[in-house]
Specification:
- This protein is globular.
- The chain is an alpha/beta fold and about 300 residues long.
- Helix content is about 45%, strand content about 20%.
- Strand 6 and strand 7 form a beta hairpin.
- Strands 1, 2, 3, 4, 5, 6, 7, 8, 9 and 10 form a 10-stranded mixed beta sheet that branches.
- The chain folds into 2 domains: about 200 residues, Alpha-Beta Complex (Spore Coat Polysaccharide Biosynthesis Protein SpsA, Chain A); about 90 residues, no CATH class.
- The longest helix has 25 residues.
Length: about 300
């Protein structure tokens, strides 16, 4: 059977959410075949058993990858992605869920009609732990972007994305193993030859905020920026990205500035001074303006806190 779409799902200790996530895949209405590839990473709760029951019941649709031991997010990411057989790949983590039963159909129809596009994503809603649901506002963003945009920052919610699958098992950047997440590197990789990225207006998913491994990482802004800076440094050295060296260099400077300001906000003075010395020759005006603005914000917050006391 030829698989049109592989849904690539990572899960670990998500017993509260995983059934809803899997059900949102099984509700998809399509005129093509799809498979759900679940990378279950040796959960210590009931997640593994729940996934096993679904895989037994829907053996024609679900490929369950179990682990004898916990591999960690990125190794689970890599082995699960390599098991995706479809022409296209969609991502859905085990704590998010789809809300549109035609999500896959709409995206496949688009990709078939526009072969110059490597990636298509949609709108989504953010679900916070306190129950608030807020739509992501993309109104200021063009509906068509490319590598020059995505290299500046990752604006694609993984729960909404679909992209063209790798051509073979070696079509994959080996440096991805160095980092705690792989979605942004994948979007960079699939658009490295100038392929276009499209956004559909539809809202098709709910993304749970501030939970899971990535949620904990994002609590410390400097840690997120350091990871993204490392990704960009690998991209810069990779000959597959030779056509976009200028854009990569510009993004590196932006991320170094962001790291300096994050260190300053977090009062990690040695880290800030190191970045200051690295940037003062490259972009002195931006560095000084950013430092003054950040310092004013810090002082203003401290003053407000003092007044409240």
């Amino acid at each position: 059977m030829n698989i049109c779409v592989s849904i690539f799902m990572l899960t670990y200790n998500q017993e509260k959410f995983i059934s809803q996530t899997i059900e949102s895949v099984l509700m998809q209405k399509t005129n093509f075949s799809y498979q759900l590839v679940i990378g279950e990473d040796a959960s210590t709760d009931a997640t593994g058993e729940i996934c096993k029951k679904y895989a037994e019941k829907f053996h024609d649709k679900i490929k369950l990858l179990s682990s004898g031991k916990n591999l960690g997010l990125i190794q689970n990411f890599i082995r699960t992605y390599k098991e995706c057989d479809g022409k296209y790949v969609a991502i859905l983590d085990g704590d998010d869920y789809w809300t549109d039963p035609y999500k896959l159909q709409k995206q496949v129809d688009f990709m078939e009609a526009y072969p110059s596009h490597s990636t298509v994503f949609t709108g989504f809603k953010k679900l916070y732990p306190d129950g608030r649901i807020i739509s992501k506002n993309y109104s200021a963003m063009p509906v068509t972007t490319d590598f020059r945009n995505i290299v500046r920052q990752n604006y694609i919610c993984s729960a909404t994305v679909m992209f063209r699958n790798k051509t073979d098992s070696t079509d994959f950047p080996n440096w991805i193993e160095k980092f705690p997440y792989g979605d942004w590197p994948l979007y960079l990789w699939t658009s490295r030859k100038g392929e276009k990225i499209a956004r559909l207006e539809d809202e098709t998913a709910v993304y749970r905020m501030k939970i899971g491994v990535s949620g904990k990482l994002k609590e410390i802004q400097s840690e997120v920026v350091k990871v993204n800076l490392g990704i960009l440094e690998c991209v810069q050295k990779d000959s597959n990205f030779q056509f976009f060296q200028k854009e990569i260099r510009n993004s590196l400077i932006d991320h170094k500035l962001s790291l300096a300001m994050s260190y300053l906000r977090e009062q990690k003075i040695w880290g800030y001074l190191k970045m200051f010395l690295d940037l003062i020759i490259i972009c002195p005006k931006r560095l000084l303006n950013g430092s003054l603005y950040t310092a004013r914000r810090i002082f203003s917050k401290k003053l407000q806190g003092f007044e409240l006391k």
